[in-house]
Amino acid sequence: MPRNAATAETAERPDAARRWEKARPQTMVDHAVAAIIAGAARGAILPGDRIVEAELARDMGISRVPIREALRILESQGVVTSEPYKGIRLMEVSHARLEQVLDVRSNLEILAARRALEAGRNDRAGLAALRKARDELDLAAKRRDVYGFALADAGFHRVLCELGGNPVLSMLWESLARQVTIIGGLATLGKPMPAIVREHDLLIKVFARGSIDEMARELHEHIVVMAHDIDFDAIVARRIEERRQKP
Amino acid sequence: MPRNAATAETAERPDAARRWEKARPQTMVDHAVAAIIAGAARGAILPGDRIVEAELARDMGISRVPIREALRILESQGVVTSEPYKGIRLMEVSHARLEQVLDVRSNLEILAARRALEAGRNDRAGLAALRKARDELDLAAKRRDVYGFALADAGFHRVLCELGGNPVLSMLWESLARQVTIIGGLATLGKPMPAIVREHDLLIKVFARGSIDEMARELHEHIVVMAHDIDFDAIVARRIEERRQKP
DNA sequence: TCGCGCAGGATTGTATACGATCCGCGCCGA
DNA sequence: TCGGCGCGGATCGTATACAATCCTGCGCGA
């Protein structure tokens, strides 16, 4: 069932134009990573839940080895926490943690935007890439596909990061993106989806205009302030309670 | 020898009062990670080199499984690159890459310093922690221990990051630190070690003074500008040539 | 001579088997 | 009654075995 999650994640590249991008052969590890993220985003695994390797392996019909490697990756990205011989758990997500993630993320994206503008990447090609990502977002919104929306949102900001032209930055951003995807999928963000789409329109417009300071303010607003008044702790608590009702 | 790297890593809490921090049982995976980093930093593995699992496993006297997990971790941190069924290589380090790493790193550290100052952590405890890290650095310098110096330098900046009070930021910083440690160990930085120690003294002084802007300028200077005039490509090329002489 | 297919070896990906550690539960003696 | 104590199940960490894939070089025919 989390099979399609894997395909969704591979559809990262704006694609179609540049055919045969390097398509790395999907190994079981990749599938496992995607499946775990998807499971967490749709609430099958809740923050703080124990994750048992053998269980996952059984459910996915593969052996423990790829599962372990996937978990190691996720651990090094802060998605899960592990204590040797004791077990692995999905990251605890508190409101404080959410703010920490977003604080770093907004700073990274602002840096990316700054470098992108310095390099004059707010040109036709750059804007086209952003608009395309925006359309994906709009599509998911019209479908009311929450997980898809979270992925598309990540896609938009990924494009922005890549316009920065710094792969190291992009790589770090990916770590955060995973966490944000989980959180976003879980919380169905404060604002309605169409409003969020419009926010992205605004981002594109400001980016096109080319003022670094303005872009920084807008990004900060978009990323940090947006989540400011979400009571995430309550949402998680409610989710846990819901599950207690019907196992 | 990379033992102290691990302990430094657990020394998250600013203090020293609360002894017996959790000391995670060192598994083979941890050893493997440390060994690979150390090997890269001392030039036993050079940028671009192929890394063969079975070889490492044989040399370390363990099986391939922990090696693989270690490599997965390092891959997700950008230290090695992997292509399924083809192999794993140590990251290519060009001058451009070095600048990319340092650009992100300086921004992260500036953010950490900003948050630390906002929270008023340039107090007695915070400064003491920094000075302690500085002394470690001085010690390594007096011993002319290059790898130890690289570790101690990382230690200093780790303390600074942790004063920021954002574990997410610290986690991302650790990824970069690994890469910087390798690069630093390889290049024996442009300036002599005592001069670098003094630069850290200056950083402490500025931090104590508490001006965010000034601290940002100083950090940028210290991190980015320092490496600006190192011809890293030449250094790597020379290393490779040296090895070609005597295998 | 040159291009092509195709073994053979090397290396990675995955599965299975086994040992190490932790945790909860029941026994037993004070 | 209560606290130590050992034992068994569950789960994690590691080793070994096997399958999938890729690269290399050789033979063969045009």
Description:
2 copies of one chain form a homodimer. The first copy, chain A, has 247 residues and is mostly helical. Chain A has 11 helices and 3 strands, in the order H-H-E-H-H-E-E-H-H-H-H-H-H-H. In chain A, strands 1-3-2 form a 3-stranded antiparallel β-sheet. In chain A, strand 2 and strand 3 form a beta hairpin. In chain A, helix 5 packs antiparallel against helix 10, helix 6 packs antiparallel against helix 7 and helix 9 packs antiparallel against helix 10. The N terminus of chain A is likely disordered. The interface between A and B is medium-sized, with 33 and 33 residues. Chain A binds a DNA duplex (30 and 30 nucleotides) through helix 4.
